[in-house]
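Sample entry (142 residues):
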Amino acid sequence: MSDPAGTGRGLAGCSWGPGRLDLFRVTDNGTLAHRAEIAGAWTDEEDLGGTCASAPAVVTWAVDAMEVFAIFPDGALWDRYWDGTSWHPWESLGGSLDPSFVPAAASWGPDRLSVVARGTDGATWHRWWNGSLWVDWQRIPA
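Predicted structure, serialized as tokens:
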């Protein structure tokens, strides 16, 4: 079935500066698509690839820097980030996650971010970037 409205399976948005809005969507074939509104005009959509089983989550942590997350069919959380110049390839952050729940991401300072997701065990799991590396998954107590 086609998707004439271009909504796909899940949306996420962010803004890293004035007059800028970035929108991400999972297409009907599971890839991640991105477009931006810059000073009132929308860019063409670009395909960022991947095989998303969940809707995306996105976070910004500095001007012209953003990271997008999705759970893939392998149950792991995958991420891809923009460094102001280019998109870096998808990388696995591991985990045993439930793709029927959308991950959530937040920034708590420059180059600092956290992501939470629902595990296949029903628990909420947390992983964060501490400015130099990803800290291992930790279960959030119920």
